[in-house]
Design a protein that fits this description.
single chain; alpha/beta; elongated; about 20% strand; five-stranded parallel sheet
Length: about 325
C-alpha cells in the first residue's frame, strides 16, 4: 500500500482528494491536514510515502513549506493546486516537487480526474505503472526517419504499444511505415481511426489532415484521429499526441522527443512529465537538428537527455521496472 497524507486548507477539497485516491486499491489515505501545523503533526505521526500539498495555506506559504520539507525531511510531494500558471508549476518542480496537478475547475473533481492523481501518486512512490501498459509515444521531425530507424532497431517483437508522430509529407507515410516494418521486429503500421493498441505494434501518424491522439482507457487504449487545425505549426503535431497521452495515461507512459527543427513536442513532453510519465529527449551531439529536443530541455520537460544509441534500452528498461 502507498500511504498518502493530504494537505489542503479546504475541507471539501480534502474530502474530494481522499475520495479520488481511495479509488485506487494500492493507495491508503492516512490522514488530512488543513494547515502547516497540522501537516507537521500528521507527517510525524503517520510517516507517509507521498504527500499532496496545496499552495494556499493559512499559516505558511505553500512554497515555503515545500522548501522546508525538501530540506529537513524529503518526501515525494505532489503539488495539488488551483493555479494553472506554468510558471508556478515550474517553480514547484524546481523546488523538488515530484509532480504538479491542477485541480479541475468548476467542480466535477470526481468525474474529471479519471485516475490521473492516483497515477501521479504511484509514480512518486516508485510504483512504476509504465509497465502497465508500458505505452510509448515518440515525436520527431528533421532527421527523424534515420533516428526512428536506429531507435526501432533496439525494440523487440513484443515491444510496448508505440505511437509516433514524424513530420513528413503525407505521400511518404505509407512507404515509411512499410520500410520500418520490413526492417524491424515490431509490426509498423499507418494509423487508422479507433485502432486498438497492442504489444508488438508501432502506429505511425498517417495523414496531414488529422492529429494522432491516444484515446480509450488503461487496458483498452486506442489510436484516435482528430481533424482539428494545426498546432505548434503542424498537423499531425507531437504536442497534441503527447498532451493526449498525459491526459489518458498519467504515470503510465513514456514520451520520447527526437531530432527536429522548431519546438513541436516540447510543451507536450512537459505535460507528460507533470502527469508522472517518464520523459526522454535526444541529446545535441546525436541530433541532426537540435531544435525540438533543445526546446524540451530548456522547459525542463525532459527527465532524461540521452544519445540516440541509448534511448531504446532506457525506454525498454523503464517499461520493465
Amino acid at each position: 500500500m502507498i500511504r498518502v497524507a493530504i494537505i489542503d486548507d479546504s475541507p471539501t477539497m480534502r474530502a474530494l482528494i481522499s475520495a479520488v485516491l481511495r479509488r485506487d486499491p494500492l493507495i491508503e489515505v492516512v490522514g488530512a491536514a488543513g494547515s502547516i501545523s497540522e501537516a507537521r503533526a500528521l507527517i510525524r505521526a503517520t510517516n507517509p510515502d507521498v504527500v499532496t500539498l496545496d499552495l494556499e495555506l493559512p499559516d505558511m506559504d505553500g512554497f515555503e513549506f515545500l522548501e522546508k520539507l525538501m530540506r529537513l525531511r524529503p518526501l515525494p510531494v505532489i503539488v495539488v493546486s488551483s493555479h494553472s500558471n506554468p510558471e508556478i508549476a515550474d517553480e514547484a518542480m524546481r523546488m523538488g516537487a515530484a509532480s504538479y496537478y491542477t485541480k479541475p475547475v468548476n467542480g466535477g473533481f470526481l468525474d474529471c480526474d479519471e485516475g490521473r492523481l492516483a497515477g501521479l501518486v504511484r509514480r512518486a512512490a516508485g510504483v512504476n505503472t509504465a509497465a502497465r501498459p508500458g505505452l510509448i509515444a515518440i515525436g520527431a521531425s528533421t532527421g527523424g526517419i534515420e533516428a526512428l530507424d536506429a531507435l526501432l532497431a533496439g525494440f523487440p517483437a513484443d515491444c510496448p504499444p508505440t505511437l509516433i508522430v514524424q513530420h513528413t509529407q503525407e505521400r511518404y507515410v505509407a512507404g515509411l511505415a512499410q520500410l520500418l516494418d520490413s526492417r524491424h521486429r515490431p509490426r509498423v503500421v499507418a494509423a487508422t481511426a479507433d485502432a486498438p493498441l497492442r504489444r508488438g505494434t508501432v502506429v505511425l501518424a498517417a495523414s496531414n489532415d488529422a492529429h494522432l491522439l491516444l484515446g480509450g482507457q488503461p487496458g483498452d487504449f486506442r489510436a484516435r484521429l482528430r481533424p482539428t487545425p494545426p498546432e505548434s505549426g503542424h498537423r499531425p503535431s507531437v504536442d497534441v499526441l503527447f498532451q493526449s497521452v498525459a491526459a489518458a495515461a498519467p504515470g503510465a507512459a513514456i514520451g520520447v522527443l527526437l531530432t527536429g527543427m522548431g519546438s513541436d513536442g516540447a510543451h507536450g513532453l512537459l505535460a507528460m512529465r507533470r502527469a508522472g510519465c517518464t520523459t526522454v529527449a535526444q541529446d545535441e551531439h546525436s541530433s541532426t537538428v537540435y531544435g525540438m529536443p533543445r526546446a524540451a530541455a530548456e522547459l525542463g520537460a525532459a527527465e532524461h537527455i540521452l544519445p540516440l544509441d541509448r534511448i531504446a534500452a532506457h525506454v525498454l528498461m523503464a517499461c520493465a521496472t
